[in-house]
Specification:
The complex is a heterodimer of chains A (321) and B (701). Chain A has 321 residues and is of the alpha+beta class. Chain A is built from five helices and 15 strands. In chain A, the strands form four sheets. In chain A, strands 1, 3, 5, 6, 8 and 9 form a six-stranded mixed beta sheet that branches. Chain A has a four-stranded mixed beta sheet with strand order 14-13-12-15, with helices on one face. A three-stranded antiparallel beta sheet of chain A has the order 2-4-7, with no helix packed on it. In chain A, helix 1 packs antiparallel against helix 2 and helix 4 packs antiparallel against helix 5. The longest helix of chain A has 25 residues. About 2% of the residues of chain A have low confidence. In chain B, the strands form five sheets. In chain B, strands 8-11-7-2-16-15 form a six-stranded antiparallel beta sheet. Chain B folds into three domains: 194 residues, no CATH class; 304 residues, no CATH class; 75 residues, no CATH class. About 1% of the residues of chain B have low confidence. In chain B, a hairpin with a 5-residue loop joins strand 9 and strand 10. Chain B contains 18 helices and 18 strands. Classes of the chains: A alpha+beta (321), B alpha+beta (701). At the A-B interface, helix 1, helix 2, strand 5 and strand 6 of A face helix 5, helix 6 and helix 7 of B.
């Protein structure tokens, strides 16, 4: 845990010149005994002290929270918000640079003014270059106010993680075994689908919409129709990552992610079978998030893992490296 | 339609602040007067040019600038090696040129920062070149504008860096950033800086090595003349410029605003026909001042005058106060270094110093102020030594009427009485005027018999010639009369205080001062606005010198000792060890107690207010009224002896105290039920509660 009093101080370019000149004038004043040079020296030293006090005043009482995006995809820009709050009741904070420190992500935002007891948010653009877990460690609030001579910064612990989904690529052409047609697939039992399963006599009190009027006309009595139970297309994306390394693995993961997205967009229930892991079939955005998260965190290797076990009830889409 | 805000954009404010800083840095140099008219005029022209056409020339003709700067560097280098100018001045001139170059080329952050650093270098050069109070004003202005410049430059480039060129344009061109409030705040910050500078200045150890100290440059000067022409035209000017600054020890009794003191400069004893001139002869070094002729018993009355003569007015003359000078010391008080100047005298006994330079001269004169009055020199006869013959010379062209007048006033009398009679007659029978007689054949006869009015030189000249015509040695003496007390504690003698009087020789007594000018007309009458301003300025300049320029290790030690003493005394008083009853300690303890109690009360009120504010922030007026009703109701119940246990709900209370049912209903309906609760309902509810409580008095719940 970083203590609240911890500060880092560094010179700016102007600060280096300014300090050098101050030392030079101090030497000149001491050498010549010229009181006016002592006066100038006093002004320069006082400015350094005032600068230190005000920069501390700017940093004190400032809290920053990071706001991570719900979804981030490799290669696509994401906005990371930094919400700063000035906890001081009266004193505003000036010229604050808020930046990431120590984690996998570099980014910063700048606030000219943060009024007393108010909040403000800045965001920086982050384009992740790889999928997987991105860790954030600290947020550093820095200021060069008021004179730009020194940069004083205050690190704050703000650990967080962001899972970056695999890069979006076009889905590869189907190479897996297609076990059924695309779209809704009838099952051999009565249900609420569209396809006709069988005809029978209409029972009194039954919904009039179940009457098959043409057959009823032909038979001279009310004939009802039973329709087939239909279920969604079920697809299992299979990726055996064990032999894959490096770029090959990345390409395979990206293809798997593309397949998952395409099938989910097509309305299918998608399951994901990996070496040592299986994501049961599901649909919708929750399933997409879960599948992409599994793919994002998929690591190389895993020689001791068992082979992928595809969903027996679904079409298998095998992804090859 | 909303009005567009007026004022400067951030960009404009930042550029102007940088320009102002450079200008004040330059001003700090220019006030020394050593930069020369050409270089002094160049800077404002360059600033104006850069403001008008700087952007158009940015980045162009770089080779021309480079050639110009290198050429200037070479010329200045040659001048330094040739001894024509010193290296500090050369550095200041070159820094000015660099500053001008930067003013014409300002685009990047580097340009702006370089400009500020060059302005700082100019300020430092100014500190080396000038010791005047005008530097102090330039310094203060630099401190304020420098604070603006540093802060706004930082802000400008931080915005550019943080938001990028496109994102920052709107903010940099906004007139809502560099508002008077921001500039005022930064100026206040500058004054904190100045206060800090003063503190550091006061406490920074004054241990100096003393190398590379810049010596003042000798220059020919003009000052007190060695001749007087009585036939001038015009009017005697009331020149308000300060020429002497004097501190007397002991201070004059009552420390009067105007000092009645003759400051003797030199003797003019040779009559020229139209005036006087100083006697011929060279200067001889003085190892020891002549002894005063023996006089009666009594302790001599010694006066020490610490005199500072403004350089422009010295002419090598040593001014002495009234009385017999016993010693002149050129050493600075508190410094062990031997004096750089030596004392000389001429045949008339006037004192001089050498070498003469352009700077102010400071020395102290100790004098025996016990001057013999005419009564004490009476009866000493008229046997004069040969060396006073020059003071007996009467011009052949002296008007017979002058001689006749002298005889009428002094013939047959003792020389002391004759001198006193002539002095009295001149002071009472003739009128003082500052109008000069103009070109007249005999200015003395014209003064005595035609105009019967004149200025001090005519009064003293007439008396000298009249005494000489009676065979009494006398001479004309010039100097100054008076001195105006200043706020800084010294007496200022001004150029308009120039005066002339008479010294008469008496055997075994030496020269005795007589002043025939009417007493009320001696010295100047400088009461005008200009004279006051001049005095104020001089006073300011003296304070600047005393507290800033001359602040050294000795002053620092004294200041520290004084602060330590003050703290010690305060501590003693607080501890009650100062012999008193420790009243101060009790007062401070009481004040502290009151302060602590007030702070605690304020803190508790604040906490309570904050808690209530937090609770009631979102309440409507009816809900707030309901809360107030509930508080008053509880108080009434408590005063009726009905204690409400912690955790008792409103419903329970209504059940146990039927009289409170109306209160509970009204409270709950308004506080939680969204019903209205007008003040009249509040009043009615409380009335109902009171009457119910009265009816059920004595019942416990």
């Amino acid at each position: 845990m970083t203590p609240a009093w911890k500060r880092r101080l560094s010179f700016t370019r102007m600060g280096r010149w300014y300090t050098g000149l101050t030392i030079g004038i101090g030497l000149a004043a001491t050498n010549t005994g010229n009181n006016l040079l002592f006066l100038v020296l006093g002004l320069l030293l006082a400015s350094i002290i005032v600068s230190g006090i005000l920069s501390e005043q700017s940093l004190r009482g400032v809290r920053v929270e990071r706001r991570l995006p719900s979804v981030a995809t490799a290669g696509q820009p994401a906005l990371i918000g930094l919400q700063a709050r000035n906890g001081k009741r009266r004193a505003p904070s000036f010229s604050l640079e808020i930046r990431e420190r120590g984690g996998d992500v570099a980014g910063h935002g700048f606030l000219v003014l943060l009024p007393a007891a108010q909040s403000a948010e800045v965001a920086y653009r982050f384009v992740p270059q790889r999928r997987g877990l991105h860790r954030f460690e600290q947020i550093e609030v820095a200021t060069r106010a008021p004179f730009g001579l020194f940069e004083k910064s205050r690190p704050m612990d703000a650990p967080a993680e962001l899972v970056v989904f695999p890069r979006e690529v076009p889905a590869p052409p189907l190479i897996g075994r297609t076990l059924a047609r695309d779209g809704e697939r009838p099952e051999d039992r009565i249900g609420l689908g569209l396809e006709v399963h069988s005809l029978r006599d209409h029972r009194p009190g039954e919904d009039a919409r179940s009457i098959h009027w043409r057959s009823s006309a032909r038979a001279g009595r009310l004939i009802a129709v039973d329709r087939e139970q239909e279920r969604r297309k079920r697809v299992c994306v299979v990726l055996d990552q064990r032999p894959l390394r490096g770029e090959a693995l990345e390409r395979a993961v990206e293809h798997a992610a593309a397949l998952v997205s395409r099938e989910l967009d097509g309305g299918a229930e998608v399951s994901l079978a990996l070496a040592g892991a299986f994501l049961p079939a599901g649909s919708g955005e929750a399933q997409r998030y879960a599948a992409l998260r599994v793919l994002a965190l998929l690591g190389a290797g895993g020689d001791g893992l068992g082979a992928p076990e595809p969903d027996a009830e679904g079409s298998v889409l095998q992804v090859r490296g | 339609m909303p009005r567009a805000p007026r004022g400067l954009t951030l960009l404009q404010a930042q550029r102007w602040a940088g320009t102002l800083t450079a200008a004040f840095g330059f001003l700090a140099c220019a006030v020394s007067g050593e930069m020369g008219p050409a270089m002094t005029a160049l800077f404002p022209l360059a600033v104006a040019g850069s403001a008008v056409a700087g952007r158009r020339f940015h980045g162009r003709m770089q080779w021309g600038w480079t050639v110009l700067l290198v050429g200037a560097l070479l010329v200045l280098g040659v001048q330094v090696f040739a001894g024509q100018i010193d290296i500090i001045l050369a550095a200041a001139l070159f820094a000015e040129l660099l500053c001008i170059h930067r003013l014409w080329h300002r685009r990047t952050e580097r340009d702006e920062l370089l400009l500020l650093l060059l302005a700082l270098l100019l300020l430092c050069a100014g500190a080396a070149l000038s010791a005047e109070v005008t530097f102090g004003f330039a310094f203060l202005a630099f401190a304020v504008s420098g604070t603006w410049a540093l802060a706004l430059t930082h802000l400008r480039f931080a915005i550019e860096e943080g938001r990028g060129p496109a994102g920052s344009a709107a903010l940099l061109n906004s007139r809502r950033v560099a508002t008077p409030a921001l500039l005022g705040g930064l100026a206040a910050l500058a004054f904190f800086g100045i206060a800090g500078a003063a503190l550091i200045f006061l406490t920074f150890p004054r241990v100096t090595i003393g190398g590379l100290r810049r010596a003042s440059r000798p220059a020919p000067i003009a000052g007190l003349g060695d001749r007087v022409d009585l036939s001038r035209h015009g009017t005697v000017a009331d020149d308000p410029r300060v020429i002497l600054r004097v501190r007397l020890d002991p201070a004059p009794r009552g420390e009067p605003r105007d000092l009645a003191m003759h400051w003797r400069a030199r003797t003019l004893s040779q009559w020229t026909g139209h005036g006087w001139q100083s006697p011929d002869g060279g200067l001889i070094p003085v190892l020891r001042l002549p002894q005063r002729p023996p006089r009666g018993r009594g302790v001599p009355s010694v006066l020490s005058a610490d005199i500072e003569v403004v350089g422009q007015f010295t002419d090598g003359v040593v001014f002495t106060p009234e009385g017999w000078p016993l010693g002149v010391d050129f050493r600075q008080p508190g410094t062990p270094r031997p004096a750089a100047r030596r004392l000389y005298r001429n045949a008339a006994g006037d004192l001089f110093y050498q070498p003469v330079d352009s700077g102010d001269v400071r020395y102290s004169v100790v004098a025996d102020t016990d001057e013999p009055d005419p009564g004490r020199v009476r009866g000493r006869g008229q046997r004069y030594p040969s060396w006073v013959e020059a003071d007996l010379a009467v011009p052949a062209s002296l008007d017979a009427r002058v001689r006749a007048l002298a005889e009428r006033l002094g013939a047959g009398k003792d020389p002391a009485d004759a001198a006193a009679a002539i002095e009295r007659w001149l002071a009472t029978a003739l009128r003082y005027t500052r109008d000069l007689p103009g070109d007249v054949a005999d200015p003395i006869a014209d003064f005595l018999f035609v105009r019967r009015a004149g200025h001090c030189e005519l009064f003293s000249s007439a008396m000298v010639l009249m005494l000489r015509s009676l065979g009494i040695p006398a001479r004309n003496v010039t100097g100054y009369f008076g001195g105006r007390r200043t706020d800084a504690g010294y007496y200022a003698v001004r150029a308009g205080d120039a005066h002339s009087w008479v010294e008469v020789y008496f055997p075994d007594a030496g020269y005795v001062r007589f002043d025939p000018t009417p007493a009320s007309e001696r010295g100047s009458r400088q009461e005008g606005f200009q004279a006051r301003m001049v005095l104020l300025w001089d006073s300011l300049q003296q304070r600047w010198r005393a507290f800033v320029v001359d602040y050294d290790l000795v002053s620092q030690a004294q200041a520290m000792r004084r602060i330590g003493q003050l703290l010690h005394e305060t501590g003693q008083r607080l501890a009650g060890k100062d012999g008193g009853t420790g009243r101060l300690r009790r007062v401070i303890a009481a004040a502290g107690g009151v302060l602590v109690t007030a702070s605690v009360i304020a803190w508790l009120r604040r906490l309570r207010g904050r808690a209530r504010k937090g609770q009631e922030r979102e309440l409507t007026a009816d809900q707030r009224r309901a809360a107030a009703l509930w508080r008053v109701g509880r108080r009434l119940l408590r005063s009726a002896g009905i204690e409400i246990a912690v955790g008792t709900t409103a419903g329970e209370l209504a059940h146990r105290v039927p009289a409170a049912a109306g209160l509970v209903r009204a409270y709950a309906a308004a506080r939680w039920g969204g019903r209205r609760l007008p003040p009249r309902v509040v009043r009615a509810t409380l009335r109902e509660l009171r009457s119910g409580l009265r009816a059920s008095a004595g019942r416990d719940i």
